[in-house]
C-alpha cells in the first residue's frame, strides 16, 4: 500500500559528498577515496553490511563541523545499491521516524502524537511514547538495510537487545498499552518483510511468538540522489505462514575456511590430496539441529568424522553461514557455488549424492565477493518468496 500524502521532501543531511569505498578496518571506521585523497570516516552502523560495502562502491559522506571527541572529520550516511542510495546512519533512524509520524505517514499511527522520546519502562528504554486519544503507545524503531530484489529482512547481525525489546513490549501490552515495532526499510523496491531467521533465529521466533501482542509495521522509504527523503512510503506485506514454516533450526550451511599455504592432506580412502592455499567453501546440511552442526565446525576435534574435518584440522576457521529452509537445498547450493568458484575438489563431501563436489575454492575472501553475496541473497531471501505473486 502506498501512502501518498503531499508534502515537501525532507533533507536530513547538509552538503553530502560522494566517495568510493575502499575498506572497513573496523565496525565503525571506513576508508574511502574522494578527489584523489584517502579519507577515513566514521560509520554509525554496527551491522555487518557485507552485501553493501564492496570495494569501489559509492558511499555518501557529510563533513562534521564540530567533531567533538572524534578522530575523523567525515561521517558515512549512505551507500548506493544499484544507483539507489540507502541510508546507513542508524543514529538518525529515530529522526526519520519522527518525521514520518509528524507527517502522518505511518499506517495505523496517523492520528498519534509524540509525547516523549527515549522513554524508560522497566529495565528497557524505548524510542517513543505516543498518544492516540486516551491510548498510550510504546514505539520501537529499527532501521533495515538488508534487502533482496523485493524483500527486506532484519536483523543482519544477532540482536539479543531486539529480542528483549519484543518480549518486554509483549508484557507491557498486557497492561493495556499498545506496543508497536516500526521497521524503516531504506529500499523503495521492497514489497515483503520477514525477520532474518538465517542470521538470528531467536529474534525471528520471538517475533512470531509475540505478534498477537506487538504490532509490526514495516514501511519502505526512498532516498533521492541528493539524499532528500521522498514523501511517498509503502507498507510491506509480512508472510507469517512462510516465516512460521521456515524459521526453524534446519537447512543448509556454507562453511568458509582459510588455508594459509599449499598442503597435502590425508583424506580417507583418497589418500593424500593436494590443496592449494586460499579460501574453501564447504556446502553442508542438517535437517535438524543446524545450529549445533555449524557450531561443531568452529572447533578443532581429535576424532574426525567427515572429510571436511581433515581440512578443518589444518585450515583457519573463517565463518559459517546458515541457509535455513524446510527444503534440503545442499545440492542446489553446491551447483550455484560451482558457477562462481575458481576451483573445486572433486568428490569432496558428495559421496551420498550425484554432485561432483561440495567443496569449492576462491583465492580471495568470498565474503567480499559480490557474486558470493548475490548467491547468499538468493537462497536466503529471494528463493523463499519466489512462489509469491507480485504485490
Provide the structure class. Answer: alpha+beta
Strand proportion: 35-45%
* Count of DSSP-assigned helices: 8
Please count the beta strands (DSSP E, at least 2 residues each): 24
* N-end to C-end Cα span: 9 Å
Largest β-sheet summary: 8 strands, mixed
Average pLDDT confidence is 94
Quick rundown:
By secondary structure, this protein is an alpha+beta fold. It contains 8 helices and 24 strands.
How does this model look, in words?
- The protein is α+β, with helices and mostly antiparallel strands and 391 residues long.
- It has three domains: 71 residues, OB fold (Dihydrolipoamide Acetyltransferase, E2P) (Beta Barrel); 156 residues, Trna Endonuclease, Chain: A, domain 1 (3-Layer(aba) Sandwich); 135 residues, no CATH class.
- It is built from eight helices and 24 strands.
- Strands 1, 2, 9, 10, 11, 14, 16 and 17 form an eight-stranded mixed β-sheet that branches.
- Helix 2 packs parallel to helix 3.
- The N and C termini lie close together (9 Å).
- The mean pLDDT is 94.
Layout of helices and strands:
Blueprint: E1 2-3, E2 10-11, E3 17-26, E4 29-34, E5 37-42, E6 58-63, E7 74-81, E8 84-87, H1 93-102, E9 113-121, E10 124-132, E11 135-144, E12 146-147, E13 151-154, H2 160-173, E14 178-185, E15 192-195, H3 201-210, E16 214-223, E17 228-235, H4 240-246, E18 251-259, E19 263-266, E20 272-275, E21 278-286, H5 290-298, H6 307-312, E22 316-324, H7 330-340, E23 343-344, E24 359-362, H8 370-382
Parallel strand pairs: 5-7, 11-14, 13-15, 14-16
Antiparallel strand pairs: 1-17, 2-17, 3-4, 3-6, 4-5, 6-7, 7-8, 9-10, 10-11, 12-13, 16-17, 18-21, 18-22, 19-20, 21-24, 23-24
Amino acid at each position: 500500500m502506498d501512502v501518498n500524502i503531499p508534502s515537501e521532501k525532507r533533507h536530513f543531511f547538509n552538503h553530502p559528498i560522494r566517495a568510493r569505498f575502499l575498506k572497513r578496518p573496523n565496525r565503525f571506521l571506513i576508508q574511502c577515496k574522494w578527489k584523489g585523497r584517502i579519507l577515513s570516516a566514521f560509520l554509525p552502523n554496527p551491522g555487518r553490511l557485507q552485501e553493501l560495502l564492496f570495494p569501489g562502491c559509492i558511499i555518501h559522506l557529510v563533513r562534521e563541523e564540530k567533531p567533538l571527541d572524534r578522530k575523523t572529520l567525515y561521517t558515512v550516511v549512505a551507500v548506493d545499491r544499484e544507483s539507489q542510495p540507502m541510508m546507513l546512519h542508524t543514529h538518525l533512524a529515530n529522526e526519520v521516524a519522527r518525521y514520518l509520524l509528524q507527517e502522518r505517514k505511518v499506517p495505523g499511527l496517523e492520528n498519534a502524537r509524540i509525547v516523549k522520546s527515549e522513554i524508560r519502562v522497566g529495565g528497557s528504554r524505548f524510542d517513543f511514547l505516543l498518544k492516540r486519544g486516551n491510548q498510550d503507545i510504546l514505539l520501537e524503531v529499527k532501521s533495515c538495510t538488508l534487502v533482496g530484489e523485493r524483500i527486506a529482512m532484519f536483523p543482519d547481525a544477532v540482536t539479543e537487545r531486539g529480542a528483549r525489546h519484543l518480549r518486554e513490549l509483549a508484557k507491557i501490552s498486557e497492561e493495556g498499552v499498545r506496543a508497536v515495532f516500526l521497521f524503516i526499510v531504506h529500499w523503495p523496491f521492497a514489497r515483503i518483510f520477514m525477520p532474518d531467521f538465517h542470521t538470528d533465529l531467536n529474534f525471528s521466533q520471538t517475533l512470531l511468538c509475540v505478534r498477537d501482542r506487538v504490532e509490526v509495521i514495516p514501511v519502505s522509504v526512498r532516498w533521492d540522489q541528493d539524499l532528500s527523503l521522498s514523501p511517498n512510503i509503502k507498507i510491506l506485506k509480512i508472510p507469517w505462514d512462510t516465516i512460521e514454516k521456515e524459521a526453524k533450526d534446519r537447512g543448509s550451511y556454507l562453511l568458509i575456511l582459510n588455508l594459509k599455504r599449499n598442503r597435502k592432506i590425508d583424506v580417507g580412502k583418497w589418500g593424500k590430496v593436494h590443496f592449494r592455499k586460499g579460501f574453501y567453501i564447504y556446502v553442508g546440511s542438517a535437517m535438524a539441529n543446524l545450529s549445533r552442526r555449524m557450531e561443531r565446525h568452529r572447533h578443532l576435534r581429535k576424532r574426525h568424522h567427515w572429510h571436511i574435518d581433515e581440512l578443518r584440522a589444518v585450515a583457519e576457521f573463517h565463518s559459517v553461514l546458515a541457509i535455513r529452509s524446510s527444503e534440503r537445498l545442499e545440492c542446489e547450493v553446491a551447483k550455484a557455488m560451482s558457477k562462481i568458484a575458481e576451483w573445486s575438489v572433486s568428490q569432496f563431501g558428495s559421496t551420498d549424492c550425484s554432485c561432483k563436489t561440495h567443496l569449492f575454492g576462491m583465492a580471495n575472501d568470498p565474503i567480499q565477493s559480490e557474486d558470493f553475496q548475490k548467491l547468499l541473497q538468493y537462497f536466503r531471501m529471494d528463493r523463499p518468496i519466489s512462489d509469491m505473486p507480485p504485490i
